[in-house]
Design brief:
It is built from two helices and four strands; from the N terminus they run ββββαα. With 82 residues, the chain is an alpha+beta fold. The chain has a four-stranded antiparallel β-sheet with strand order 1-2-3-4, with helices on one face. Strand 2 and strand 3 form a beta hairpin. The model has no long low-confidence stretch (mean pLDDT 95).
Length: 82
Amino acid sequence: MRIAGTIDHPILKITVMEMNNRYVLKVEFNLLEQTYKFNEDDQLRSFEDIQKMVDEGFLQECIKRFGEMNKTRGETYLRNIK
């Protein structure tokens, strides 16, 4: 797996990796990670194609999901560790 590129964002770390005709889009925030995998096809063949998919709507959904993930992590910690 090799890093195809990174996408700048003020609060998220966004990395695009390429492996075996597949792209892996990794979005990280606050010790949490979301991973999206895409098969290479006629319409999706480059880092730039993946970059186009990372639009404002996608990023807002990722941030919302990170909020939910953080809440879930906190709740299970309180139930099982504290």
